[in-house]
Amino acid sequence: MWGFYIEQLIHSLPFFLKGLWMTIAVSGLSLVLGTVIGFIWGIIRASRSRVAKSVIGAWVDIIRGTPFLVQIFIIFFIMPEFGIQLEAFPAAVIALTNLAACFICEIVSAGIQAVPWGQKEAATSTGLNWFQQLRYVIMPQSMRMILPPLVGQYVLLIKDSSVVSAIGVMDVTRVGWLTVQRIPQGLLVFGLVAILYFVICYPLIQLSSILEKRLSSGYTP
Amino acid sequence: MIEFKDVHKWFDELHVLKGINLKVDPAEVLVVCGPSGSGKSTLIRCINRLEPIQKGELIVDDMKVHDSKTNMTKLRAEIGFVFQQFNLYPHMTALQNVTLAPMKVRKTAKKDAEDMGRYVLEKVGLGDKLHQFPAQLSGGQQQRVAIARGLCMRPKIMLFDEPTSALDPEMINEVLEVMRNLAREGMTMIVVTHEMGFAREVSHRVAIMDFGELIEIAPPDEFFAHPKSERTKQFLSKILTH
Known about the structure:
heterodimer; A: 9 helices; 0% strand; flat; B: alpha/beta; 6-stranded mixed beta sheet; globular
């Protein structure tokens, strides 16, 4: 019997690869956008502007304190009530981008705040403006603290992207759901799904630990 | 060059500068001493607006520091500031540390900035350490790079906030020597320090602060030999006999 199912599964492999491609598209797009937005939010959150800081802080807390599945339902099912109609794909990208931005915002602002205050004062006292301080003095130092957890966060977000299958995005998880109805071998089907996620995530896990090792040493040539 | 007119500064409720009046002339070397928490660091940090003042006037090189419209970038470029903790950029070599501001603020070409950087680092005795990172330098060497970083901007004024307090005793002198040379060349300097030997030998005037007020200010001979106020006598007896 197993042999028959495996053969069936091999036949549906193109279907899985399509799903894998969708997973990569949703998470890739969201991670790029989320990183850009997350860095901007994180920089503001670490700044001295009180209002912007607390608005972003509150938003990040709301998103971190609610399930991603619920967020995606709100965007996909409830926004239309207010006249915002979205296809599944853009809804998924928006939801995941927002989630990514919130987590990355926290990582970035922690990294910036970990740079000693004296660095900023030294840069200020030589006449560097706000942007130059950030660009040449603060960020090069905080990147060492930001990069390892950032890559780790990417792994978590790629796995979280499986939630978008709930609104009908044909990602690799949804392909699994559909396939298991034809091939009633859950272990086999979702084993394949798991392997496909692992193939994307494992290099990133490795990268994160390499970065951790390399960046935790001191500043020497 | 620097003029304080009834300058007040508060940290929330705490009144840290209580009506400072002080004038520093070009090429003058002023040493400021006093117990910790007396406001002496705050005093010099106000000069390049690392700390804003709340009341009074503060005029530096004909620019109004108390006026929020003043272009601080321009003013800060004219003032070198040396911190107790050096605050060198750890991800840059000594040469990169000293050339960053000239290139970005003064828009000096890289080659010219590096020529200048080499010259200044040579001058503070670190001509052989151009490409070392701060972590590879001793405390005294780091502080000399920090002084060079200030000098590379060709400032009109140099401010020193306890520049030797974080150093091992055997490294203090190499830093003071650099400062002595600067004073000889006619740099306008305000130095917050407890190095009374330096004050006696190099400064034109010595000031003492306590509880946010300037208690006494006088040329070193007078200051050390005939202090006027009781507080100065007390402070000197503590600091000179230890």
